[in-house]
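User: Show me sequence and structure for the first protein, then do the same for the second.

Assistant: Starting with the first protein.
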Amino acid sequence: MTSQIFENAMIVTADDVFAGYVVAVDGLIAEIGEGHAPERGLDMQGDHLLPGLVEIHTDNLEAHFIPRPKVLWQVDSAVQAYDGQIATSGITTVFDSLRIGTDEHETRTEFVTMTMQLADALARARREDHLRVDHRMHLRCEVPTLDVVDALRDFIARYPVDLISLMDHTPGQRQFRDIDKYFTYYGGKTGKTLDEVKAVVARRQQVGAERAARHRPMVVDMANQAGIALASHDDTTLDEVRESIDQKVTIAEFPTTVEAAAASREAGMATVMGAPNVVRGGSHSGNVAASTLAEQGILDILSSDYVPGSLLVAAFALRDVPAVGGLPGAINLVARNPARATGLHDRGEIAVGKRADLIRVKLAGEQPVVRSVWRNADRVA
């Protein structure tokens, strides 16, 4: 039996904040108390002790593998760098979001190179115990793409999958209702000229709706048959929300309007918004602000999306919003709620019997700074 005491900490549980201590035994939380610990342990010096964060949608791994357009980094090195960044951001459970479906400007070979190589590298690192945090698999299925169904079938046959999101980035709807935002986003992401991006838009609009209508139910069927949780991405209208309800979607990722978010929540879906949206003060695509949903009490989960370090910053930024519920409620947005939404009931909060996934956070003014990270009570950062 191994034990560890974390003392002199500002403990943040799911519903309270108090000065006290936590005792972990064999990687699980065995005791929580106020005031002085029964014996000396690791002195937190009054810093906050929080549950390890749970990130359910980040595509940041791809940025490590492709640091510049057309530049592929060494895949194992990319995974290690990404894993280190995730850990030092205070995230102890991460759903690595890999894209399924070949984009208009790619070839099938390029898709296999990126997605399958990354999946292989993650599996290898997990098998050899080279990862600091608990990695899970989240597939972003781009339903308007020609090969999404075949690619998903191939992937599920080779790797375990924990979450699938139904995505449709056809220009002119959902996230990219504003075509100009699409031109700006994809021009910067791909390095293509405006004329080249416009040509891509024309092709996507020509085939996107028909393909999406055909492929989305097929992806849903595969997920249901494999027992994989489903999320719908960028629902905008009530019709889109109704489709998600009919398809037994349980997570509403980045709804673009208050109307869609409220309807999703009323139907029992967990609503997810981007932490960068909170930090920046709004959506980079011109859609609804995450803070608006927080103020209306219809925000359940924050995702770091493309900036892992934004998760903790955004939670602390929302702690004074009345509907959020103080610091405990804000931390629930990035720990307990995403854990519950994905069926991980053994983590996400400081409570007896839960995993001792813990982070020590010091406040530098209003800025939260991660000082230490433990997974199952083992120091990983």
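Switching to the second protein now.
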Amino acid sequence: MAQKIPATIVTGFLGSGKTTLIRHMLTHANGKRIALIINEFGDLGVDGEILKGCGDETCTEDDIMELSNGCICCTVADDFIPTMEKLLARDVKPDHIVIETSGLALPQPLVRAFNWPEISTQVTVDGVVTVVDGKAVTEGRFAHNVAAVDAQRQLDENLDHETPLSELFEDQIACADMIVVNKTDLLEGAQAESLVAQLGRESRDSVQVIKTSMGALPVDVLLGQGIGAENDLSSRHEVHHHHHEDGGDQVVHVHDHDEFESFVVTLPEISDPVAFAQKAADVIRDHDILRLKGFAAVAGKPMRLTLQAVGPRIDSYFDRPFSANEPRETRLVVIGQAGLNQAVITEALQE
């Protein structure tokens, strides 16, 4: 019997650094042929654009498949399974499949999908990697039970109320085989060690908790865990979400993302990247935006500027030249909880 192709699921909250982690992995793949399935939240395929071409012969543009019809954990039958079938039907099979979920996805339904007959004989889940924004978690913005928030709760009982963000975070931790604490360069050494220890206590036994910055992990650490997670579903159950039978053999996922929304803002060239980043940070603060990401054209510069922000922290770098037929414009995805004032945010970014 042919050996199953290993697949790694990379999950984590909005802006935790999943795409950066995968980009580093592709540029250090050591000849391993990797196929990517990317699930974006928003209409502009930013993550896919960032990753295209960065793996050269180990991950060509044809090896990158994007799912944009909704959260991957809610579209398993309609979107994910057909994509996997198309990938597995190729004459040249990948050595490894990496799946980047949207920041709003639960990993458990995706792991369960690997037991579907269409793929169970050909692919196994090598491991589930949950990427954590170390700085954000220590500030208590995406989890309700970190030490910093516990101290604040003694002063304000309202902080005891869980939010959808904290529930998503807990479910992603509950399913992880490896937890990558990213952005530790923004933390003091003691903060990073405390967070690693805490996540180790809160996760399942034998889960690895690893520190990094800019997603820089050796490919041999990230891939090749050999977990077979689809055979270990009972230990990685959802903490806050439940399922019901649909009367057949399939399990239907009950999950609602109506509390989040996204839209695209299109702008002309910008003249000053530093000033624009500062303005964007102000808009993010003023409107409680969770994530802003996209690309910008800078006047007089042939290279495209990539912008990625989680909260008011914005990272930017020039990634590639604009092609001859590519419009020199700025396009940004804005993601936040429901109720964003799209017109006001768009106008503020245009000023």
